[in-house]
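ARCHIVE CARD
Drawer: 12
Card no.: 0347
Subject: one protein chain, sequence and derived structure
Cross-reference: see card 0346
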Amino acid sequence: MDAFTPQQTIELVSRIGTKKAHMRLDKLWWNSFMSGPLLGFGCAILMSTGASPWYQENAPGLIRTISAIGFPVGADLFTSNVMFMSTALLHRRVSVLDLLKNWVVSFFGNLAGSLFFMAIITGYGGIFEETPIYKQAAITLVISKAQTPHWHQIFLRGIAANWLVCLAVFLSISARDVASKIIAIWFPTFTFVALAFDHVVANMFIIPQGIWAGAPFGAGYYIWKSMIPTLLGNIVGGGLFVGVAYWYLYLTGEMVSVTFDPSSLPAAMEAGGPMRRTQTEKDRDTLHQNGGTIHGLDPEEQLGQRQLPQSGTQMMSSIGRELSDDSPYAKTHAERVKQGREESSEEKV
């Protein structure tokens, strides 16, 4: 089966977390901002599908299941960053400050994007005001999520939600091809929506939309009764039950190597190279992988080509380049600091 092992997958999770820690804050903000509306589309489908009074009264489980089918939409979310950054921190590849910066920026970026989508697109767009049924469905949903359950119940639902969401991300990273990644993401996400667990970023659209429609509470109640317990539950679910658990099972005391094998078709497609290579290109690859000299390239460039697998040309996978064993993201924070000091001392000499 062409997939990474669980040990390799959690190693990649750690490296991705390290990469995210070094993302420019403005890019992290806008990436998080754009993710809010993307998830908002799925939330809007959820609310729209719920506007079915007969099903709500006679078959609520069925309408939840139907709503969950169209939900798995999203991108760079705070909830998945909980897993990425927790694992990288435990692996000593990022600092606590790196983790906090990532969490704060991604959380408020998601919040700003979700509120923008809710107010401008669905709010002023009147998506849930076409009929009284849509409006009542929005109000009923937010009451069931923020007012009816107790604080501790919302917290526990938040644990389950991000446990499943981070499991979905974990499984998608273990897959190599796009179709497998989509399937891997779909079912855990479908499960948490069908069971009405609480996802803090999804609620950033759902509950403000209900307040906009006329729910019997305001922003302060939402923050205390829903946002805070869901946020804390999501941190526990993604950070502890996925990040910490898999780090302990597969990374403690282990040295993990991750190879992006160019010999398989999915890896060749991932690497962006051609499906067919000439004999000259094959000979050239074999020569440089075995340490031979490639005419026309300076020694430094030849060394760089030996560090990462290729798929027939010099066009290498961005994933392979950034997350390979030789990348800086595979090093601990202390190793990167030491390397930086050594490079600085060499420049002074």
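Annotation on reverse: DSSP finds 16 helices and no strands in the chain. Residues 264-278, 303-317 have pLDDT under 50 and may be disordered.
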